[in-house]
Amino acid sequence: MTLKPKFNIPEEVKIISRVLWSAKFENFLVGGCVRDILLGKKPKDWDITTSALPREIEALFENTFYENAYGTVGVVNDTTTDSTLKVVEITPYRTESGYSDFRHPDGVKWAKTLEEDLKRRDFTINALALDIEKVELIDLFDGEKDLKKNVIRTVGDPNERFTEDALRMLRALRFASELGFAIDSDTLLAIDKNKNLLEHVSKERIRDEFVKIIMSDNPSVALGIATQLGLLQYISPEFERGVGMEQNKAHAYTVWEHLLRSLDHAAKKNYPLHVRIAVLLHDIAKPHTRKWQNEQWTFYGHDVVGAKVTKQILTDLKFPKEIIDKVLKLVRWHMFFSDTETITLSAVRRMVRNVTPELIWDLMDVRAADRIGTGRPKESPYRLRKYHSMIEEVMRDPISVKQLKVSGGDVMKIASITPGPKIGFILEILLSEVLDDPKRNETGYLEERVKELATLPENELRKQGSEARSRNESEDEKESEEIKKKFGVK
Ligand code: ATP
Ligand code: MG
Asked: How many domains does the chain have?
């Protein structure tokens, strides 16, 4: 790694700094942006620390907003097109306020000097400040040396720093993954010693670091250290269950190792968050479903149980519902049967319906990562390409009751029945027929069928309707489970 000696500070940031200095307030670029500049990377955002207090900052700039409990004032740049410069955050010097309940900061305490502010920061590489006017680096804790050595080390005594705020342990792992740095040995020892304090950290804060780990280029670096040090349980106890768990002969890796390898592939492919999480969790229920049968381990139903476990894990971590819903669909259907020799278009159609058209290509990405993560992929890329072309073929076919050429209203008229469950059963039967063959989605044919179905006795219609519904929802699944059992594939 070569450090870039020339700092490239955007004009917007320089102006803010000049305004603050002209009002006699000290101010410096600080934290992640200084670290990234020195690494020759484009900073994600620009943070300034200053001797000015929030009200004094607000008075100096036209368009500001007072952000949060940390005393941060955002200066808004309307004219820029660079998203990292739309808001530049200015925070008064602060000092370590402590987290006596390990959960909430005890309150914000202003500090008088830059030194105090830098001292409360987590790692030496995050505690560098840059005087923008003089283009001078203020490096009180050998942060530049650690940057050059690619080392993550706490500012001051690691045991104290992790006791003040346990989340820092997870942040150390996150930066190891993001930057590809090693964690200094004393810092690592302190993580091992203090890991149980993570129990008190709020799930939201843990989730935010977990997301950053997952979104880094090499998530298995952080998750690998977490595995070795026994930190996984603080993200989710479910993660630990697959550690060291052997699978059958077709798998070169243990359950957890397979998940980590799959996730690294998803990161390499730059898949979005919900796909990466699904990749990490797709086999999460293997430990729940493992059975010794016919001289080998089987994991029947790990996809169904997996969706439940996934929901639990992500709800515990307070993920938004929108993400949870997507991930659990992907986990639920990751075992889709893809033998294009035996599979029918109607089964592919049902799979698109199950996972939804919005997520079908994400499901293919989950499978691709799963394949690579096994080390010796059984499934040929040719077969998957063929499956993809089958998806394309069925993508425009009707897959929901809404897309049928007859509506609930039509059914009521044709069969002269009043609103009630009968209509739903009839529509479900029609859909089932259309899923088998989309050419049947034609008014003449469907109207005839409605007439026929309307003559059935109520209990017979109910029976056929429920059968159609469960077939619509899971035919592919049943079909594939049977075939897989028959061929001894798991
Ligand atoms: P990124 O580029 O991912 O935003 P960052 O270093 O800016 O990385 P942030 O979480 O945005 O990370 O935090 C900004 C800065 O605030 C850090 O560089 C660090 O100096 C300080 N900081 C953040 N969280 C903590 C913490 N829990 N304890 C001590 N200092 C912290
Ligand atoms: Mg930041």
From this structure: 4
